[in-house]
Amino acid sequence: MKKLGFILLAAVMLLALAACGGKDEESKGSSKDGAIELNLWTDWTEDRPENTLSKDIIAKFNEEHEDIQVKIEEIPHDQYETKLRTQAAGNQLPDLMRVWPGARTAPLAEGGAILPLNPIIDNWEGVIPDSILQDYAVDGNYYAIPGNVSITSLIYYNKEMLKEVGYDEFPATYAEFKELVKALDEKGITPIALGNKAIWPLQSVYISTIGDRFTGSDFLNKALNGEASFEDPQFVSALSVIDELTKMNAFNEDMNTLDEAQSRNEFIKGTSAMHFAGSWAIGPILDSVENADNIGVAPFPSFEGGNGDQAKIAGVAGGGIAVSSQLSEEEQEAAFTFLKYYYDEELYQGLIKANIIVPADVEMDDSIPQIFQDANSYVKGGLAPVYDATLTPELTDIINNGLQSITLGDKTPEQLAKEMQKEAESK
Q1: No. of H helices and E strands in the chain?
Q2: Do residues 320 and 145 touch, judged by C-beta distance below 8 A?
């Protein structure tokens, strides 16, 4: 009788647990009023225009969708990705989460932790170039939509200074660009304000695009996988551009003692005709120059004989929002509804007003400065990989230091290429 009692008690407990489990599963993602609740993890803790904009759009979404409510949990950026990886390992991710492209999203996708967005990807056809959407693609599946784009390679120029030496338009080819540099130097004008003290600008701003124009966008991954060599003549030609420009007096003499911001300020003051930088410089330049109409922006010139797409520009897609693969079918539909609402005109127009480059092809009114409109238009040509976002930390250190050594005359392009190849083969 005692044994039978234990069996009956165990059966009752199992039934109770089953009932509780069913109730939890049934109520997962639902609020008391029956609306589907989706928890979104973000790193929007800083008081920045894009963060405020995102939160305002989500609040508006919640107001307009009584059946779906998105709840934001803000986590400081320094802690965010660590927490995301930890929770992913324990299969305890939130319903929605902020992610970043490439190697930072791939493990989540490959581990089946996040959901492909292929069923709704056509929503952005003709709006966001596929070459940019590919930053969030893994094995043919799309896992997030980028909100913004960070371009690393733009040429800002002083229109009046260029006119002084006979240029009404910016040169389209490298051969023509060298003639401009020569003309400026002969006029006693510093052609380019460069601040390479931190050693990353020559790599991230210059070589990321120049290298791509010569080698093509698949070169870096091939070189890392042993399918190509850093001693390839096309890559050596890209490195040689820095050597050639240095010998042409294209840069200020103190280029290796100024930081990037200091060199930008020299350009703003009018001590140089050009400044090469990323899209991060648009706001500071527009806020500081006396006459914004006198500042132009251009993509890098094309290089004759290069194997790469001459229209591409180095850059990376910004953060996106991924969807947990653990959601029910109803919750997935709710998440898709939210993403289509969030990644729309209001978001992109709001980012534009904050001088943030967007991946979307949207109309801009006359209140948007021409320099921004031009910079944003270059995204249509597609994005080339940024070297320090693609190379290993060891190779990044080698190319950063090596490029600086080239400007000092301590190393040749061939020597740097050989050093990089030796490091690649050691892995």
Answers
A1: 18, 13
A2: yes
User: What b/e readout covers 150-161, taking b as 16+ CB neighbours within 10 angstroms?
Assistant: bbbbbbbbbbeb
> 72 - beta bridge partners?
40
- Would you give the end-to-end CA distance of the chain in angstroms? 69
Integer Cα distance of 245 and 205 in angstroms? 15
Strand, coil or helix: 227:
coil
- Same domain membership, residue 135 and residue 47: yes
Q: What is the Cα–Cα distance from 294 to 276, expressed in whole angstroms?
A: 16
Q: Is the whole model's pTM more than 0.70, yes or no?
A: yes
CB atoms within 10 A of CB 3: 7
Distance CA 5, CA 9 (A): 6
Amino acid residing at 190: T
Q: What is the pLDDT of residue 176?
A: 98
Residues 69 and 163 in one domain: no
Pairing of strands 68-74, 96-99: unpaired
Domain coverage including residue 73: 31-148+318-343
CA distances from 390 to 90, 102, 122, 159 (A): 28, 9, 28, 34
Q: 102-111, 116-125, 274-283, 306-315 — which is least confidently predicted?
A: 102-111
What are the structure tokens assigned to 201, written together?
């600008």
Mean pLDDT within 151-155: 97
Q: At residue 8, does pLDDT exceed 50?
A: no
Contact 223, 424 (CB under 8 A): yes
Residue with tokens 């010998």: 247
